Amino acid sequence: ALTLSSLGRDTEALAIYKKALEFEPRNVNTNTNFGKLLFKLGEVDQAIHFTKRAISIDPSLTVPNYNLCEMYEKTNQMGMFKRAIITGLNKTTNSASILLKKALLEFREKQFRASVKTLESLNSKQLSNQKKLILHNLLGKNFDKLNNFSTAFRHFEKANVYAAMDAEKKKHAC
Known about the structure:
Structural class: mainly alpha
Order of helices and strands: HHHHHHHHHH
Number of strands: 0
Strand content: under 5%
């Protein structure tokens, strides 16, 4: 089903997920991936249902918790987005992806110091270059709003380094 979906054959992928769930309705990966595909196809309520089912099967997994945050964020359900972040962080031992969402929410709510604190808690974690790019860009934006321009500039410079590394990696992947 994942392969079919990646090839744009979503209708076939949906049929496979449905059949797989008939045989194994409590498979966390199938529920997670089915939810993500349904969301991609605009079936928001169903997507949220299957994503929540995946979380109920194994609350400690980052991916379905993160997906639920994404679904609420992208559909502008900010109250549910905030609740999904808090719940996800409580269940997943502070996932870096969900912490980045929390910092973004804090920034949007103009809680710049809280956002900085959340982002600084990520500095000790192993992050991909893409996440480091997001982290430093958001730190730069926060420090800019706090009128700490020299610190903002340093973080924007670091973000640019990670952006260049990411671009170089993509160039060599082709």
